[in-house]
Amino acid sequence: MFRKLTTASAVYAALVANPHVYAAEPSAELQEIEKIDVTGTRLKGVDLEGAQPLTVLDQDAISRSGANTIHDLLKDLSQLKGGSGTFSTSESGGTSNSTPAGQAAASLRGMGPSATLTLVNGRRVAPSSFAAGTENFVDVNAIPLAAIERIEILATGASAIYGADAVAGVINYILKDDYQGGEVNVSFEDSFASHDESKKQLNLVYGMPVGEGHLTVFADLYDRNAFKASDRSYTANAPLINSYSYLPKLENTPNIYYYSSRDGNEQPAPGCKTDLVETEYGELICAYYGNEDDYLETPFESASAGFIYRQPLGDLNWKNDFFYSKTKSQAFSSPAPINQIDDSDGPYVLEDALFIFDQQDGTNPLLDSLYIDPFDTVNGREVWGFAFDARFDSPRTVEVESENIRLVSSLEGDLGEWLWQSGITLSRSTSEQKAIAGVYNRYKVHAALTGELCSNGEIASYDGTALSCSGSDLLNFYNPFLVGDAANDGILALAQEQPKREGESTVYGWDANINGDLMELSSGFIAAAFGVEVRREELSDIPSLNARARADNDYLVDVFGFGSSVSEASRTQYAAFAEFNIPLSEQIDLQAAGRYDHFSDFGSTFNPKVSITYRPTDSLVMRGSWSTSFRAPSLTQAGVKLRTTTSTFDCGANQAVSDLYCMGDGTEITVNSLELGNPNLKAEESEALSIGFAWSPSANTNLTVDYWQFEHEEVIDTNMTAVLARAIDDASLRHCGIVPDGQQGISYDPDVCDVSDNAGLTIEEQGANLSEILDNYITAFDPRDDELYLPLYRDHVIPLENTGTQDLAGIDIKFDHRFNMQGGDLTLRFDATHYLSFERNKPGSDALEKLIGTYRYPENVGRLSISWDADDYYISLGANYTDSYADDIEGLRGRELDELDDLGVLTEEGTHEVDSWLVWDVAAGYDINDAATIRLSIDNVTDEEPPKLYGSQRGFDSINHNAYGATYRVGLTYRF
After folding, report:
1. Are strands 796-799 and 668-676 parallel, antiparallel or unpaired?
2. Of 403, 401, 408, which is closest to residue 436 (Cα–Cα)?
3. Strand, helix or coil for residue 659
4. What tens digit of pLDDT does each residue of 620-659 get?
5. Of 766, 799, 832, which closes a domain?
6. DSSP E strand boundaries for 485-602
7. How many CB atoms lie within 10 A of CB 907?
8. Cβ neighbours of residue 233 under 8 Å, at least 6 residues apart?
């Protein structure tokens, strides 16, 4: 009974219940050999229904969802909500540490996208060469939705079956196979708001016999318009007035930097185009808020095509699947600050810049209130001027084009009573990024500010007496206070640059496995699977030279506010695995699996899995499993040479760090840093436990309840808090100014090196007392009242480490019941996750922070729906619920906390609770005839605004909520 399946489609229908799929039965030749693959096991032909907590999205669910992309399809599943692992293009940005433009990832249990293994037809896909931070991930936008037959999600550890990265589980995308006939789908989606945020899609699938085999082809086109924060009243402005930046756009006129003001206060230049903002020091400044340049969704377009071809070759079955996809997107970050050449605040401009403010009576409102000081130009000339504060006008904008190919060719056949299968895989992802706006060369900008820029865009040469340009003219100096002057703006435009970045990620693989009955017991046959796998992974991420931080240039990237990493790495992996299903009795089955993996870089690991299935009745399955899993250090983490990024240190995690750098407060501070890869990284390790049951008291009722937990150790990250803590006693980590090439540690403002502790030791000397140095620094330099801490400089060099742990547990509940009624069926469905705990160690501390109920970690998420299905139409009503949680206000400045207090939104404990969110949607479909179906859906029917959030400039949580408001989608399916 386990050897042959007379009708593969019948078994599949039992698994995924899909009455609306338009496809013919597979040919008899293919049916003869096919056995159903189920995610989470290599065993074929074994009845494992209900043995594991598997979530299946079938073709009917995909069609009714109205989703245009894989991310849209998955975003409301409870297993993928909570935390910040699952991301979409709403988090894309135009800087090196932003989420790559146009790309999206799925993360189970909020454990991070690299802890979720992505498979297509049970085999791996090349990750994006552009990492999210240093985590490589599979870009789910590259998987063509038109090709998906179903998606199977196993949200528990699965390294014993699949190897690396299946820490939180597996998402397996099953492609359409042996499709008969043709189908065209078109859809249009937009919001009910007045702005055009439309999404358009066209896809095709067609299948037909070819000789003795079968060919299925598919194609998909998708286009999405941009969605800006300024398009909604509730996101157009920052949630707090005091969340301002001192750096206005040039078009609003700069501020005078406080060091150049005689009274020591920042002041606006005349002509600010926005209302002046009063600071906590009583200053009136021209301010900037990032919302005006924020894109909540970036413009995005994709095209994909592919085929699946199956052909019997005698007693063998030959299968090939191939797809190609191309995506194009832009991403935006706020305009870059204009800093000094060494990246410190307050760039200087010539004194003559003030002349535009001269009054008719010969007076100047700014001249008498400023210090006019000498400073050195790019060419080393000493000139006179003053400092200002500003940012460029245009957002930093990058354009990314990505191409993905995947080819799998496999053979399968019989070896006696055993079924064998072997296949090769080639998967490649390539991306090209180009900065197209808002990126300026730091040296050319400063040359422009002092009249040292030539008309050909080159910096003038200086012979000690005069400036000169070769083959071009010397331009006038650029005046940042002269707004709307074409000639002046043209000088600055010559300083723009277009850094590029090219990446490629490739996976080559070969695998072979064999399935069959090993031996017979009194209670049945022991089914077994054995296999081997060889994989080669290669990755390169190479930016142009002007986007790199280089030690020979004091780590100053040639362009302002922009950078990237240089990553190159490869590895080879070998694996062998075995899996058994042992019927201990008629009611109890034992599944046991183990896999050995050897990696050419970090070594070997063995991961077992044991699970028990108990069926006391035909309607009840009780199940439990235990397993270990691992995540190999990503090739980016192992191979990054130097990555420009930011690091955050948490003064609430270490009091000594707080006293030295945060004035004793428990705030979080973000600084510019350089991240180093680490070839000595160990694999992350995880232990997973799952216990639950599946109960079907009738053919129309199903209930599953599963408890799950993970203990995830050796998590890879940088740990600036820990480095600061270690630096208190380790002088090798303390550096005056730039960290020397080849060394690591903290960069201190050179002023700190001009003072010593009471024993005469400077900060770079072993044994120095940093508390005494801080006291003596305050005495010597008399900083502002809010700057009574050791001043850090820039570009701290921080290595990646196996630094963290995270332990989490929760309960999944799924319920559905179908009421058979006259004229149709009424179905009630409920799917929810309750997080019992989510604990993670704070950076730089062994103390665990409890995340459940904190920012982006709701305790409960779920979906409830009710649907009516008749012969030729359906209609459904659904509700998505996200629980409340605490706002992320720990990192806010004192002025922002004071404003929150004035608004009366803080609790007695000084916290703010983000409201729960309940959003309703409706969907309907009608079969016009046997060939055509029309569908309509409306999301967020009541046009609910996202809950107010003060800890983010956006004013809402773009991971757990969205700001579109009510949206509609119309789709048409035509079959032929």
Report:
1. parallel
2. 401
3. helix
4. 999 999 999 999 998 888 888 888 888 888 888 888 999 9
5. 799
6. 500-521, 524-543, 565-583, 588-599
7. 9
8. none
Strands (E), 842-872: 848-850, 860-869
Output the 3-class SS for 632-697.
CCCHHHHHEEEEEEEEEEECCCCHHHHHHHCCCCCCEEEEEEEEECCCCCCCEEEEEEEEEEEEEE
Burial of 233 (0-12, 13-18, 19+ CB in 10 A): exposed
Whole-number Å distance between alpha carbons of 145 and 201: 10
For the record, the structure tokens of 524 come out as 């049945």
CA 510 from centroid of its chain's CA atoms = 29
pLDDT(236) > 70? yes
Give every CB contact of residue 382 below 8 A, 6+ residues apart in sequence.
Answer: 374, 375, 376
Pairing mode, strands 213-224 and 284-285: unpaired
Q: Are 440 and 560 in contact (CB under 8 A)?
A: yes
Query: HSE (CB half, 13 Å, CA atoms) of 850?
Result: 8
- Whether 633 is covered by a domain: the verdict is no
Percent above pLDDT 70 for the chain: 95
Output the six-digit token pair for 465. 């007496």
Hey, which bits of 416-493 come out as E strands?
418-437, 461-462, 467-468
CB 344 within 8 A of CB 257: no
CA 294/CA 407 separation, integer angstroms: 38
pLDDT digits 0-9 by tens, 246-262: 999 999 999 999 999 99
Per-residue model confidence as pLDDT tens digits over 587-617: 999 999 999 999 998 899 999 999 999 999 9
Least confident of 196-210, 544-558, 573-587: 544-558
| pLDDT value of position 21 | 34
The answer to whether 547 touches 502, Cβ cutoff 8 Å, is no
387 contacts: CB under 8 Å, gap ≥ 6: 256, 257, 259, 260, 346, 347, 348, 349
**pLDDT tens digits along 33-69:** 445 578 888 988 777 777 889 999 998 888 888 888 8
Mean of pLDDT over the chain: 90
Contact (Cβ atoms closer than 8 angstroms) between residue 139 and residue 404: yes
Lookup: tokens for 900? 């929150």
User: CA-CA distance, 502 to 541, in Å (whole number)?
Assistant: 6
What is this structure's pTM?
0.88
Stated as kind and residue range, the H or E segment containing 220 is strand 213-224
The count of C-alpha atoms lying within 13 angstroms of the C-alpha of 263, restricted to the half-sphere facing its C-beta, is 11
Maximum Cα interatomic distance, the chain, rounded to a whole number of Å: 109
Amino acid identity, position 347: P
Pair type for strands 913-914 and 885-886: antiparallel
Alpha-carbon distance of 477 to 472, in angstroms, equals: 15
Our count of domains for the chain comes to 2
Interacting residues of 596 by C-beta distance below 8 A, sequence separation 6+? 575, 576, 577, 604, 605, 606
Residue 652 lies in a domain: yes
Rounded average pLDDT over 728-744: 92
Boundaries of domain holding 495: 250-288+335-395+438-499
**What number of other Cβ atoms are within 10 A of residue 314's Cβ?**
7
- Residue 894's alpha-carbon distances to 242, 653, 666, 877, in angstroms, are 9, 19, 12, 45
Q: Of 751, 783, 799, which residue is a domain's last?
A: 799
Average pLDDT of span 672-697: 91
Read off the amino acid at residue 436.
I
| Secondary element (H or E) of residue 636 | helix 635-639
Helix orientation angle between 442-449 and 486-493, rounded to the nearest 10 degrees: 150
CA neighbours within 13 Å on the CB side: how many for 443?
14
Residue 493 lies in a domain: yes
- pLDDT for residue 365: 82
Rounded Cα gap, residues 33 and 5, in angstroms = 8
- Predicted pLDDT of residue 38: 80
Does any domain span residue 760? yes
pLDDT score, position 559: 95
* CB half-sphere exposure, 944, CA atoms < 13 A: 20
Checking if the pLDDT of 18 tops 80, the result is no
Amino acid at 527: A
